[in-house]
């Protein structure tokens, strides 16, 4: 600032030519278009003094007629070379020639103004926001932003080449990319917070693994809710005599005790990867394999582990309630493995993902049999076939439940026989199973002896007492010839 400004050789030449109007006022800040390489003729100075060159190559000087000629050195020794867009080592004289040619042709570039630059920044931010709002997936949004940046670079190059306008490059691209990254990060954090809040809210009303599947695989899960038929293990549990208990007890006490019971049971179901399908007052319906399956055998084993854990936890709860003077709960649990339909059931105003089908009905019927046979857990033969190597099972009966014409083999789950918390079968179990087969084969004398012996080793066992009573009855009043050991259940 304050220093003297000297006019360039090109500006001085233009004024000498009477072309002062072609000298831009802001010549220090105007970029110009360079001529392409080898489009400006170069004539060695010594050719002017060689007769042959003058007459042939220079056409007796006609090459200079009506031309602007710049005379200057180009010897490598002088090192008068300059890096330019046209040539990395352009001779000094040609630099002046290009400046003169650009002024005569008006081949100057114009830089975009402040208003245009601000508009481009605003437009870049708007495009970035639109992309992020349109494409919710971070990778897709970022990829689209990169494509938009490449398109802008193409616009800058085209404007530079064909309109001689120099648009800003870095700041709009920075705005586009950084705005997109900022919006993606904001959306990601906001979505994570919203998902966490929604998950914690839904966990109280919908089974935890259903919530996880909905939030993690929304499209696939919602498509599957149209209805899928698959093998599942269904568990039903019910508190015996709860209706009469709820009528006698104080309402607040009933709700408090029931919530305590349901809280413990639901935790155990979730711990064993189950889904709580619904509550039916004091009853619970849980499913394995509806949302996510690890295979029929694993699903059935997880369900049976959950049932045994629930049975043990009920004993713990009863001890706690006994100390508080609260009535104890007696719970029956039934399990069945079979094909059922999982889908979204309900109306447009209220829908619920649930399981329906014959397998569900049978599991409910089996749970009802626990009261009839005086056992805590009843499972069907389908569950027994999948879990017999991992659990100690005991035959209960052949039962034709309400709604089915074929009998179902029912078993009682005693304990786990695997390494984790397992146990060995009781010593009388083999004799008991032998007695059951003898009973079904109409060998009632041997069966009675077997059940009596087992009952002596397991005092108070309801199944031994029940079978012994049946054997005595059949010894007096034999069953009809078509009898096959099936017991007919007359109620649900």
Kindly describe this structure.
The chain has helices at residues 9-16, 51-55, 92-105, 114-134, 138-162, 170-202, 208-216, 218-224, 242-248, 251-271, 296-324, 358-373, 381-387, 429-440, 444-457, 462-476; strands spanning 81-82, 90-91, 110-111, 165-166, 228-239, 275-280, 283-288, 331-346, 351-356, 377-380, 391-400, 408-416, 486-488. It is α+β, with helices and mostly antiparallel strands and 492 residues long. The strands form 3 sheets. Strands 5, 6, 7, 8, 9, 10, 11, 12 and 13 form a 9-stranded mixed sheet that branches. Strands 1-2 form a two-stranded antiparallel sheet. Strands 3-4 form a two-stranded parallel sheet. The longest helix is centred in the middle third of the chain and has 33 residues, at 170-202. It is rod-shaped, with a radius of gyration of 46 Å. The mean pLDDT is 86.
SSE blueprint:
Elements: H1 9-16, H2 51-55, E1 81-82, E2 90-91, H3 92-105, E3 110-111, H4 114-134, H5 138-162, E4 165-166, H6 170-202, H7 208-216, H8 218-224, E5 228-239, H9 242-248, H10 251-271, E6 275-280, E7 283-288, H11 296-324, E8 331-346, E9 351-356, H12 358-373, E10 377-380, H13 381-387, E11 391-400, E12 408-416, H14 429-440, H15 444-457, H16 462-476, E13 486-488
Parallel strand pairs: 3-4, 8-10, 11-13
Antiparallel strand pairs: 1-2, 5-7, 5-8, 6-7, 8-9, 10-12, 11-12
Helix pairs in contact: 1-3, 4-5, 4-6, 5-6, 7-8, 10-11, 14-15, 15-16
């Amino acid at each position: 600032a304050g220093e003297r400004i000297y006019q360039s050789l090109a500006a001085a030449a233009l004024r000498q030519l009477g072309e002062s109007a072609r000298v831009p006022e802001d010549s220090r800040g105007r970029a110009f278009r360079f001529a392409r390489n080898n489009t400006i003729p170069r004539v060695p100075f010594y050719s002017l003094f060689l007769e042959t060159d003058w007459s042939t190559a220079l056409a007796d000087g006609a090459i200079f007629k009506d031309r602007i000629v710049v005379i200057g050195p180009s010897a490598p020794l002088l090192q008068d070379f300059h890096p330019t867009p046209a040539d990395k080592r352009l001779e000094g004289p040609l630099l002046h020639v290009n400046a003169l040619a650009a002024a005569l042709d008006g081949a100057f570039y114009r830089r975009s103004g402040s208003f245009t630059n601000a508009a481009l920044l605003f437009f870049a931010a708007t495009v970035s926001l639109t992309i992020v709002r349109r494409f919710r997936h971070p990778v897709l949004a970022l990829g689209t932003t990169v494509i938009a940046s490449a398109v802008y670079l193409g616009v800058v190059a085209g404007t530079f080449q064909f309109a001689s306008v120099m648009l800003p490059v870095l700041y709009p691209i920075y705005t586009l990319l950084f705005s997109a990254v900022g919006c993606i990060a904001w959306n990601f954090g906001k979505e994570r917070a919203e998902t966490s809040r929604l998950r914690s809210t839904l966990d109280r009303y919908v089974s935890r693994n259903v919530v996880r599947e909905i939030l993690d695989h929304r499209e696939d899960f919602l498509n599957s809710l149209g209805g899928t038929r698959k093998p599942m293990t269904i568990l039903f549990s019910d508190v015996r005599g709860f209706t009469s208990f709820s009528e006698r007890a104080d309402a607040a006490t009933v709700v408090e005790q029931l919530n305590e019971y349901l809280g413990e049971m639901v935790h155990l179901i979730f711990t064993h990867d189950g889904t709580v399908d619904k509550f039916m007052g004091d009853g619970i319906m849980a499913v394995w394999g509806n949302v996510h399956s690890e295979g029929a055998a694993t699903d059935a084993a997880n369900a049976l582990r959950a049932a045994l854990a629930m049975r043990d936890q009920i004993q713990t709860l009863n001890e706690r309630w006994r100390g508080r003077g609260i009535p104890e709960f007696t719970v029956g649990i039934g399990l069945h493995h079979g094909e059922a339909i999982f889908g979204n059931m309900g109306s447009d105003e209220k829908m619920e993902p649930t399981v329906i089908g014959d397998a569900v009905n049978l599991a409910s019927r089996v749970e009802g049999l626990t009261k009839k046979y005086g056992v805590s857990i009843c499972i069907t033969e389908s569950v027994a076939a999948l879990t017999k190597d991992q659990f100690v099972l005991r035959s209960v009966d052949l039962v034709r439940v309400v709604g089915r014409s074929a009998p179902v083999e029912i078993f009682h789950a005693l304990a786990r026989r695997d390494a984790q918390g397992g146990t060995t079968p009781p010593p009388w179990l083999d004799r008991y199973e032998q007695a059951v087969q003898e009973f079904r084969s109409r060998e009632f004398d041997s069966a009675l002896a077997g059940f009596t012996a087992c009952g002596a080793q397991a005092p108070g066992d309801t199944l031994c007492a029940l079978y012994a009573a049946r054997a005595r009855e059949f010894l007096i009043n034999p069953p009809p010839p078509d009898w096959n050991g099936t017991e007919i259940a007359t109620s649900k």
